[in-house]
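Case study.
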Amino acid sequence: MDTAPNGIGSMLWMPLVKRVRQPFLGQWALPGGGLRADHSLEQSAYAALESTTSLHPRYLEQLYTFGDPARSHGGLPMVSIVYWALVGGADAQTEPVEGNNVKWFPVDNLPELAFDHRAIIDYALSRLRGKIEYPQVVTRLVGERFTLSQLHDVYEAVTGEAIDLANFRRKMLSSGQLEDTGEKLRVGRNRPAAVYRYVQSALRQFSSWDYSVNQSNHGSHATGNDVLAALTTV
Amino acid sequence: MDTAPNGIGSMLWMPLVKRVRQPFLGQWALPGGGLRADHSLEQSAYAALESTTSLHPRYLEQLYTFGDPARSHGGLPMVSIVYWALVGGADAQTEPVEGNNVKWFPVDNLPELAFDHRAIIDYALSRLRGKIEYPQVVTRLVGERFTLSQLHDVYEAVTGEAIDLANFRRKMLSSGQLEDTGEKLRVGRNRPAAVYRYVQSALRQFSSWDYSVNQSNHGSHATGNDVLAALTTV
DNA sequence: CCAAAAGTGTTCTGTCTACACCCATGG
DNA sequence: CCATGGGTGTAGACAGAACACTTTTGG
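After joint prediction, the assembly is written out as follows.
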């Protein structure tokens, strides 16, 4: 995939779905699906995303709940509960098989969107930027084990701006949250880089209901160059 | 009201309601109410809080939506949409009239709570701490016009720790977000303090759906010593 | 003049930034 | 031996913490 204009190596991408009914027929929109009585909200969101995009996200978090009376038709107010997901580089290798109605877009070049989905995406991105410091979050994007360069690429993709690699590396290492696995990873013909992971205590240190679901991980390594995210509505 | 143990002058308080039915009969819980078809979620939350506690909050924000299948009875999953409110010192003067089933508690000394309401409160507090920098938020607690000492008290109450007043004052003034109103406020027989307000641009600078509702304000001044917050469920 | 809160100055320390530099590797 | 990314050193700018100090007021 492409490289971003400014000195940034990686890019955030997300899948959109072309609407097949009114309103906004033919426009791009966030993937979505219905609520299921015997499932948690997270499970319903996961299913909605999976069925429309074939993604198996490793991170799923509730974003916001919308309940505008203008959307209601008669009885109860219509409520949309929006989730967002992160998909790591490893999963991505199998994904970009785009279905007929699904297409991946870089977040800095999105098409016109249906409803208020553009605003939802902007809000999700600001939340993501605020949380990128959390190991639980960044791990979903870069994988369990990673080099400092890979971690650096994810930070740049998420923040959208260039970060000095030398300073980044020092900051990360001095945080005490990373440990050297002893492994080396060679990219191309260059000097092999040390492979790190977050220490257990860093991964555990979070309190809220975020990061609750889908802790299953398939032992994958981050190798791709791009960073993927998805939003879904229930 | 009391003074906190450590050098902190003000305290965060919140209202709880004693449950009058099963489950958790007799236990303390967050105020709550039902959803209304012809109202937005915010309006419903506002109504729920108002009817149980007689509060007219000046700040209302969506916290999280719960939808555990374990809560369901048959049909659709039962969903709770939690909002939180901030109530400034001025409003407070009329409030602490506690109804039979409503009582105010300092957040560092809450009773046993029904359901998972304790966890909800903890999450709300961490969110509040993260947002206390935003003029839109702090203004709801301290009022439109305030002295630097009052602002300082709010910061201490919310963060729960002592903050050096001299440094605090410099930081605030150098931020460029405050402007001197020219007014003076005398407390007791001491030197009068300058009264400040946030500049318009600072109050406008926010993006998300938070801070959307209930912009009505009754031109009140913060004079009380305590800071109040409320959570409600819909 | 005293107490108490308002408000100012100064020093110290740690963190962020920019950028020069050295190291390891395969071709 | 050279190009490329991995990795280290260092000097200046800046922001926060600690705390001594001065000012204004009513009693």
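Observations recorded in class. Residues 164, 166-167, 171, 186, 188-192 of chain A lie near DNA strand C (CB under 10 Å from a C1'). DSSP finds seven helices and nine strands in chain A. We will return to this complex in the next lecture.
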